[in-house]
Amino acid sequence: MSIDLSLPELPILRPRITVVGVGGAGGNAVNNMIQSGLQGVNFVVANTDAQALEKSLCDKKIQLGINLTKGLGAGALPNVGKGAAEESISEIMEHIKDSHMLFITAGMGGGTGTGAAPVIAKAARETSAAVKDKASKKKILTVGVVTKPFDFEGVRRMRIAELGLEELQKCVDTLIVIPNQNLFRIANEKTTFSDAFKLADNVLHIGIRGVTDLMVMPGLINLDFADIETVMSEMGKAMIGTGEAEGEGRAISAAEAAISNPLLDNVSMKGAQGILINITGGTDMTLFEVDAAANRVREEVDENANIIFGATFDQAMEGRVRVSVLATGIDYSVTCNDKPETSSVNQDGTSEEEKFEWSYSQTPFPEAKQAEQVGEGVKWSSNIYDIPAYLRRKK
Q1: In terms of DSSP bridges, do strands 379-382 and 370-373 run parallel, antiparallel, or are they unpaired?
Q2: Is the residue at 58 inside a domain?
Q3: Residue 357 burial (CB < 10 Å; 0-12/13-18/19+)?
Q4: CA 300 – CA 274 distance, rounded (Å)
Q5: Within 13 A of 9's CA, how many CA atoms are on the CB side?
Q6: Do 310 and 372 lie in a common domain?
Q7: Strands 306-313, 379-382: parallel, antiparallel or unpaired by DSSP?
Q8: Confidence (pTM)
Q9: Could you give the C-alpha distances from 112 to 9, 39, 62, 72, 359, in angstroms and in order?
Q10: Given CB 3.0 to 4.6 Å as the disulfide criterion, which of 21, 81, 138, 358 pairs with 116?
Q11: 92 and 161, same structural domain?
Q12: For 148-190, what is each residue's pLDDT tens digit?
């Protein structure tokens, strides 16, 4: 008779991070991250446009609102995107329910991204609340990373984007906003349209890599998921940046590049409530360099800010230093159940929130002129040029 004294193998426990790309812009961002080789993340894409889903590099694809849109898109109407997400919410939750951290990326101003992203974020929040009621620590930390339209896309699309941002911010822990117009700050006359958008998508890549590296890369100072959650939970708007440098003064140069990201919305680190700093380098990175980089970032924030710091090694970074900074709590965080304190009032006595009703029975905007019906029982009003050509031809 033999006695087995071997210890059972312990499962490898690590945070499950999911990125959901919503709509066309969100799907493109996911494609770029997959092509860049980002590891340790589960990717999901969700769209009302069946053709766009077919072209996605992602394995996990969700066709939003099959009955509502027939796979033909949302027609630039957020209320249709919202309805499509609500129709498919069970399938969406199957992909994200076991996540510890959820990144939702989308473009604001269109139909699917603007309408569906808040629905997904709210469902994740409600799942967290339901689990919390059962005395469990399980919570889906939800981060929105979204773009705003170019100026040339017009006032109406920008207005849709702003109202969509208000809706989304109510239901995420942290929100990072990237105005597409800011691409002109880093582009030149020879920058291609495709390359410019890859620069914007890189902000999401930076954010995810900055978080995952601190938890999974070997280093002097590693963090766990609870540290990340402390900085990002219920924190409202955020800014994120990264910088790499080599040669003399590389640590300071990398830190200064990280705190001055030209792509982000007009936000400042000065009032940030939480700061996450990740310094990565090769084995030649010195203690003095780590100290210099961390102190340079600390100079930019309030002395009472909650600063969480990590330092990791990467053999591929030999001779270089990379500093990633995530600043959260830049403005007041609005929860899912909160109502806006103030709202603009139109000449007819209605507010902008009332004009932009997230239901099928209301006209999204005052200038909407024409009622259309697509699919059974779904009606909305819109300017005819916001209706896809294939629907206009049916008239």
Answers
A1: antiparallel
A2: yes
A3: middle
A4: 12
A5: 2
A6: no
A7: unpaired
A8: 0.77
A9: 45, 27, 13, 11, 14
A10: 81
A11: yes
A12: 999 999 999 999 999 999 999 999 999 989 898 988 888 888 8
